[in-house]
Amino acid sequence: MKHRKPFVGRAAWGLVLSMGLTLCAQAQKATHQLPITPATAAWGYYDAAAAPVLRIKSGESVEVHTLITSTPARLEGAGLPPAQVEPALRDITEHVTNKGPGGHILTGPIFVEGAEPGDVLEVRIQSVKLAIPYAYNAFGPKSGFIPEDFGYAKMKIIPLDEKKMVAHFAPGIDVPLRPFFGSMGVAPPAASGRINSAPPGIHGGNLDNKELVAGTTLYLPVHAAGALFFVGDGHAGQGNGEVDITALETSLSGTLQFIVRKDLHQTWPRAETPTAYISMGLNEDLTLAAKDAVREMIAFLVAEKHLTRDEAYMLCSVAGDLDVTQVVDGTRGAHMIMPKSIFGKAAKEKKK
Questions:
Q1: Which residues form the domain of 221?
Q2: pLDDT in tens, 115-125
Q3: What is this structure's pTM?
Q4: Is 291 helix (H, G, I), strand (E, B) or coil?
């Protein structure tokens, strides 16, 4: 006997179509737009008292736009044609007077519903794109890792080739681009008040970690209701250390998804790439920052991979890469990269 396919009438198809359109509308609504304007800019600070410029639900995404950390006068002084200065940068430079002690022009903060102190904010970096065809690199007489060797200021405008994804640094020298947001963080504890955007800390902030490209996830401990997420300091690329104090500084846009994690509890920022786990250490002393990065990886391996502390310490030595993140932000950074490929089926079953 032949089984006939169930008949779906016009009314049923209409219902299916209506539900589909509703779901599509909800999906589209779940991605918010956040341009950078005088009203959405936080210049030079992270602050738990900052008024949110956008409120979203956990699980929603935001397409953010960020500005190059500079001023029209500085860029033009370095040789950039005035027509290439972004109108938004002129607007913000002219109208934003509520500034903090730092120099970064950040976008935010974003309030994520349900986030409370003690939670973790999971930030999935879905995409990062160049917004302008140039970057700059600069150093000054009192900044960078070896200012005693360079007692003057210099800025260089560097063309960016988005098609080839390289920076034309000089004739015969092309630098591969790996764009990322140098500063991604949440509000610090309220007792800290308004803090400088330059030194990273328990809030994340100016991490300058070149591993945080599209496809990676950043985990930030939450210290204030709504988390209050800020982002900026776009880098088209950077070397570990960021030794002269700047990278390929540029404007970026990107899509970030925010998820409130009630099941996670951590003291310092952590990250995850498709191929590795990353722990971070931050301290004014680079040696102490490196020690903290190792300790954080040990804690992760004990909690998530169920190793003993002895085994975790040993694994850090035989498989982990301990790298310098940056040495120029006052608070120095180190990070450890642990490859996921070493954790086979047995480790996954043990975890279950």
A1: 32-265
A2: 999 999 999 99
A3: 0.89
A4: helix
